[in-house]
Amino acid sequence: MKKYLLLVFILISTLSYGQRKDWNLGIFAIPSDQYRVKIDGELQKPGYSFLIKPGYHQIQVWSPNYEVYDTAFTYMTGKVIIKIDLKPSTQLKALRKAQYEKGRLHGHAFIGATSAIVLGIAAAINYNEIGDRNLEYVRSSQAVELNIEGYSTEDRDEDESRLQNSRIAQYTMYGLIAGSLTYCTWKLIKARQVEIPELKDDKSFVLDGVGLSPNRMGGMNASIRLKF
Hints:
Helix 1 (about 90-145) runs antiparallel to helix 2 (about 155-195). Helix content is about 45%, strand content about 25%. The chain folds into two domains: about 10-90, Carboxypeptidase-like, regulatory domain (Immunoglobulin-like), CATH 2.60.40.1120; about 95-195. By secondary structure, it is an alpha+beta fold. The chain has helices at about 90-145, 155-195, and strands at about 10, 25-30, 35-40, 40-45, 50, 55-60, 70-75, 80-85, 205-215, 220-225. The longest helix has about 55 residues, at about 90-145. It comes from Salibacter halophilus. This is PEGA domain-containing protein.
């Protein structure tokens, strides 16, 4: 069973990453494209390497439509790497489940349609064989009635049996084709009944405020605060 929560601390003394030189905390989360990090309640810039001071720290990691991962530890020295597999939200789980079910039903419908096509080709071939065997049966029947040398009642009966077997096979394939098409239609109807839920806007990550802060040039920079 897949473990959604995985926390691995690895303390190493020498290790370098390209994002920043002065780092001592690396956080890697799955999914890796949109996750954000808060350290001690402060939202960090996007990235995976951070600089923290010795002491107790609370770490929160979040990604849209995933649950917030919350942990804490006491940092002493060295470099710490945290690896996290974020747990999908209830909405995301429902979406994935519905998508899987819809795909499964479409797959079954495809199997039914493919079976109907294959059986249709086989029925067309067998239909031509019925014509040939019917001619053989008519020929042997007439030959027996006319007492033509080389034809016997056994030959006629054998031709008749082969003709009847081909006809039975033909009707059987017609039934299987009808069953396959019915199965395909039923699965498509079931697939249409599966509703794919829409992911609502994840409000875990929201605008907390807007403000101004002085810059080095003596002016003011606009700033926004985000929280999750």
